[in-house]
């Protein structure tokens, strides 16, 4: 008999105690998410599992964690040994790190953050459902959970297709993609769908607080109460009685929202109307101020206008639009289930579509914001910061239909307004230095309590006194993002738009993808008709409808490149929609404009635009594979075109840029309407430096003798200041007025009027300028007068 050496036996024994044999991790919620959490897992083998946890990250050193919790509930179900540890007594809005330790070893280190218990804090949710059996979009959606980092995921049922053990095991394997790379986990609030054969599938796998699988969870103290309802059991009777009682008992909640599986009025013709839900719940929702309802099951996409139950002459299928007091219904579930056509719109449908998606929901005391996220490009999407989950990450594909990309629900209180007035977006500094960040804030129905300032998502302090400002010592060269958050006396908050600044010589890369139907268009060669919603983009010949050799327009939004930056590299990446190998000769130019407007359906709207002097010839290689997005589908270097545009005196960081393509031959690329995640993408690498603009600004100050011009400064009045679209220069009894020039804070000339006539009052219209601080230079005889003015 062959013998095994003691050394090998020791090695095997050691191997078995290194890692606990656990998997299929999940977080769920039974009670207050600010002070409790449920940690769930599958115990593959081993025993005596304990969760070790605390607010300090000790990695996998389990013995260093100060707290421990044994298994609270065990249930062997769907071929898994489901274990749940219910943690209580936690601190709100706090990071907790944990490991699982059993008699076989220790798991990797995970962590979560408890929800805030302060209703003034903004919250984030993801809501959707119907992951079913299509794993690719299911995994994509799961990956976006890890990247968007919500307070919770509201999941409306139909996790699997057949509710089998093997399907559930695979589903939980895929759910691990919701865990961020740093081990952060996010709780799921689960509802039952019709593909869950019984309540046990949800109760036993997610340890929800009710075996009947209808329950409510309050987030953010009294900010929002979320109702999870069950359309797969009797709707009338005890479930609706409980709902009515709970709604009445929780009138103190600022917001109430609900989720359940089957919609009241599905937007797919083949689906049965949800009359029981309508008869029992719609009036309760309306009467008790449930402002948002997430529905699933139909495998399509919809958002509605606010509606109320009604059978009046203006109603449609039992609802009428009510913008003041109605409930908005969204969803219909596309987390991976087979998609169905949105062929049953109502008069109160806001927008509908057909694609893989979920809802991204922001909630504060003043409003709820709902965005629909297309999930197919998950691998290309950036990641929000753990400290700021409300900044939209790069390449996130937000659905932008005809009625807008954001559904906003407002309450009775008004949120404050807030904007950063200095620095301005795109401002540059020659070197690290101490700067002052200024913000304006106001509240229409109260007062401003404070303004908090953030650099790169990290707070640098608050200011409770107007004018609001904070000093910041820039530590090193690089790119910085600035935001501010205003809080009013009601606890409502508003976050400013992001201001980007650059310090020193900064090399950066940006990528922007076409983001709406009006941004990739085709113009008919013969009659100039502009086609805005094609399922693909022919570059450039199209036989359909006698389009001929089209003029193609591509518009890329929010190009954050400072004026005068050096463009080092630029190209446009297409994705092949069809194969094509015939000869093609294309010419690429830019729209010679400071801020390219959206294309319209006006005749010749593309070809009549002025173009850059710079142009690039492109003779594309064969496109041999549909779906390919490689070097063959990429334009040649177009940096000369981009350089010409950003060198324009009126170019500002954050402006829009358009490219116009003409020629002969054919290559067929994906369009926004065909596949938004594969639409054309512009890639730009650039270097920016503050030296040039700062030198100009310095020279302005140097040539002005303030002491000798005090009288002139006092006599010349600018009003209004701040201004919206234009302002007036009052110059009474002043002769010898020469040129008038307006510079931005970087010293860049943005307006000039030469040889001003002798007038007492001059109107200056500069509506196109960005918000920020400007300097007006007025030539008076041999002197220059400088006046500061702010655009609101």
TrEMBL record:
Keyword match Signal: yes
Pfam families in alphabetical order: Big_7 (PF17957), Metallophos (PF00149), Por_Secre_tail (PF18962), Pur_ac_phosph_N (PF16656)
Calcineurin-like phosphoesterase domain location: 143-294
Residue ranges constituting the Secretion system C-terminal sorting domain according to the UniProt record: 720-790
Family annotation (CDD domains): FN3
InterPro entries on file: Calcineurin-like_PHP, FN3_dom, Ig-like_fold, Metallo-depent_PP-like, PAPs-like, PAPs_N, Purple_acid_Pase-like_N, Secre_tail
Matching SUPFAM superfamilies: Metallo-dependent phosphatases, Purple acid phosphatase, N-terminal domain
Signal peptide location: 1-20
Top-rank lineage group of the source organism: Bacteria
Molecular-function GO term, any one: metal ion binding
Residue span(s) of domain Purple acid phosphatase N-terminal: 25-114
Alphabetically ordered keywords of this record: Signal
Protein name per Swiss-Prot or TrEMBL: Fibronectin type-III domain-containing protein
Organism the protein comes from: Flavivirga eckloniae
